[in-house]
Design a protein that fits this description.
Mean pLDDT: 95
Distance between the termini: 19 Å
Shape: globular
Number of strands: 21
Number of helices: 16
Strand order of the largest sheet: 8-7-16-17-18-15-19
Length: 507
Amino acid sequence: MKVNIIGAGVAGLAAGIYLQKNGIQTEIFEQHTVAGGLCAGWRRGDYLINGCMHWLLGSHEGISFNTFWREIIDLDSIEFKYHEERVVFDVPGLQDRYGNTVFHFYNDIDVFEKYLLDIAPEDESSIRLWMNQVRFVGKYLDRLPPVFYDEPWWKGLLHKMQLSSLFPMLFFMLRWRKLTNWQFAERFKNPFLRKAIVLLYEKEMPLTILFFVQSYANEGVAGYPQGGSLPFAQKLTESYLQKGGKLRLGTEVERIEVENGKAKALRLKDGTLEACDYVVSAGDWNWTIFSALGGRYLSKGQEQLRVPKKEQIFYSFCILYLGVDYDMGNLPHFIRYDMGEKFQSPDGTEYERLEVHIYNYDSSMAPSGKSLLAIDFQTREGDYWISLRQNDYEEYKRQKRQFEQKVISLLSRKLGDDFPSHVEMSDMTTPATYYRYTRNYRGSSQGWTPQNNVLLRLPISNRVEGVDNLYLAGHWMEAGGGLPIALKSARDTAWALSKRIKGKFVV
């Protein structure tokens, strides 16, 4: 019995690990020359670039995802960093009661509450309401999502009955599900704080996401793994190989061959057929459904997702990485600088702030006495970059260089006129980069966006209607995406497949 898995990203590797643990032989086919998918990192000279994770949900006990990660890798072998502040940023045109123009977004809720009450005492009731919602979420993190095991029916029934303790969380979600941070800001009287709440994220954000993210940080369950994304992906890969899995890198799948309602083989780009008994596609959902399967197997509502609206897809990024020849350890690790003017990227997206990550907390990123910076630009214009690279590569490179020079010039306003002379390494990724190496639709960073409804449900599941032995996994399975969804979906799919093949699922 053999399972062919498409994609060696986090979902593909996790599914492979679970299936190998259940005695099911798997082989993963990955188009890139390294495993990890979007969980990527690479070297440029003496610098290690972190292409994905700023924090890992489940880094410590107190949340279900810690249990899931421990089922597939040695989490204790990873050192995690927990920041005191999430971000600091300018609040343009306004000051707090002490004359400060910079807002501090602390991770510890008690510290953050004290800070907010100090700068905006007139908003005490709204501040306490806010902080109490974050504390409320923290009470339920160890059961979200619920952790189930393959166990006797009576134990399973008992565990499901215990889910009744989550009813207050359901009412919480219904209460706040349609509000955003922009709307919530209208509750506040203090102009500085009201504007700061609007600026907490680069875009308008569902309020429940804010509450959950703050709770993760406050409870200490979302730390940054030292070394970033690359060594984390390597640990997943090593775990998979140690359990007997086979990994084919640089091997692109072109099509899933289906006969009589069953996936019989994977057709590779070179024409080779790789036969199997089951297939798990942990690749891009749009590619799987509309390319690998030719759009022939659609469930109700899926046709409308063939060419989704821009706002339905999580933004991609243009990210400029800079290696600087001096130590920037005196600065906060995450800063949003207001530039006092609008500026455009080549794809036409307008910005007013520079979102700057300084990896001064991870010595593996830069040589001693030097610093790595990452300046992020969210964009929904993935098609622009992908098309430009495919049709005019020289123009693509020229526009990247031009934007890079613009950003460095803007940074010099904040970091000093001589800043450009200290830049000794630069590397810019675009949505075309993410698409090229992962085939994620439009270069999306996290699949579907929940938009303004975090309870949004999509016409998607881990099965494909009309293909009996084909299963899906990955961050496209649920709105919100990211590593947690990739991991959870891989576990769910491996469970279903293991029960079908072996009659049981062990972790």
